[in-house]
Structure of Carbohydrate ABC transporter permease:
Amino acid sequence: MTLTSRGGNRMSYVLLIVLGFVMIYPLLWLFMSSFKTNQDIFGSSSLFAGSYVWDAYAKGWAGTGQYGFQDFFLNTFILVVPTVLFTILSSVAVSYGFARFRFPLQTLMFSLMMATLMLPDSTIMIPRYILFSKLGWLDSYWPFIVPAAFATSAFFIYMLIQFFRGLPRELDESAKMDGANSFVILTRILLPLCKPALFSVGIFQFIWTWNDFFNSIIYISSVKNFTVSLGLRMTLDASSVISWNQVLAMSVVSIVPCIVLFFVAQKYFVEGISTTGLKG
């Protein structure tokens, strides 16, 4: 290796370190500011403060009223976990049908499904709210869980269709020769090969549902059913004097599950993103 190439590599490492620090700086500031006073938070953008507050996490977790963040976290898991599981199951079933079978009006149905990707969510917000209201599902988690069970996310369906199409059809034919039916082929042969795509769907849906504020504030009205995102918003309305260190502390805690899930499933997630859509 020549001196020129070594110098180029060092410059690349320095550039990556600088860019990485710029990207991670907001998170570092968020964490460090959870130990600051209001004056330090708004008085300086420095990571360090003149004086530190050590009880922001304890007070923030306890909340300001009858319900604390332990309740909001429990509510969020009750909402997110079934939504993620039903999204994976329903998306797998629909995408398997589109990728491996031929049936009447298949092209039309696939086109209609793909058209929903172009449909702004705001155009169906009012009809959807009226429907859920007449079903008596408002102020509950059913508006999130039930649609997930019926494969309403065209993005995940298309993503899995592309992954199924990348798997050789010879696998299906070999299994059929051994007497396996379509369900056995899906569960015992194809799904084990689809782990990267399934993890990608699960991570995306978990993070999107966990961080969802807009739909939560529309369908959930009582504090006892609030999710983490609504709980964070409620802390801003609790009093005229806002303890921003507590708000930031709970913001740090709220992103921990998403970060942990991503790093635990990072291997499958990266593999799923890199291989989805490739034809085998």
Q: What stands out?
A: The two ends are 37 Å apart (CA to CA). DSSP finds 15 helices and no strands in the chain. The mean pLDDT is 87.
